[in-house]
Design brief:
The chain has 5 helices and 12 strands. It is an alpha/beta fold and about 250 residues long. Helix 3 crosses helix 4. Its EC number is 2.3.1.181.
Amino acid sequence: MSDAPCAVIYAGRMPYEAAWALQRRLAAARAADRAPDTLLLLEHPHTYTLGSAGKLEHLLWTAEELAERGIALHHVDRGGDITYHGEGQLVGYPILRLPCGADGLHADVIAYVRALEQVIIEFLALYGVQGERISGLSGVWVQKDGAPHKIAALGVRVTTKRVTQHGFALNITTDLRYFEGIVPCGIRDKGVTRLADLIAQPPDLPTAAAQLAPIFAAHFRRQPYAASLDQLLATLGDAHELHAAP
């Protein structure tokens, strides 16, 4: 059986709430077989998102401080705790129909997360950076100053139709000072880092997106093709009436 097609869209900078609404629309269309599998790659303006397992105490700055810094806050339906999104961070939102897991009914979410981590590990290897996992923690980590630092955060949702939403956030040239306003992913004893602190010449986001997409496609056995957001939305027909994934 040939690999299923997967639209790869680099959408540039997009407000978080717009990207979240787009994910829901695409996931609903994918569940109804009105859209292909899609990999959205983009960056957000300054945003904190608090996942379903998040604790508000892990937000350290007040509402006034968030306003002063121009940071939006969203409570979202992905797994995980609180994280930061901002300029210089490559965010990936796969909208995929996953196969059934061992029970024949549900998707294997853990295997999906591990595969996303492996995609990022192999992307980092392109730059001679060794990414790694830490048992019991999600995300991708690198050694810096003799200690593990998180370079990519993951948080996903899989609908009852086995369609994925949310995804990963990979720090390329991210301003790490914005992580000072949170306890990243609720983990107090480990730091965060970015690719720019590990290599002399980090890629810009369009380049990083172009390099990561084929790695992603290979792991998920998809046939990638470049598409624009307008092109994809034009194929949805009346899918604009579908506001949330089943």
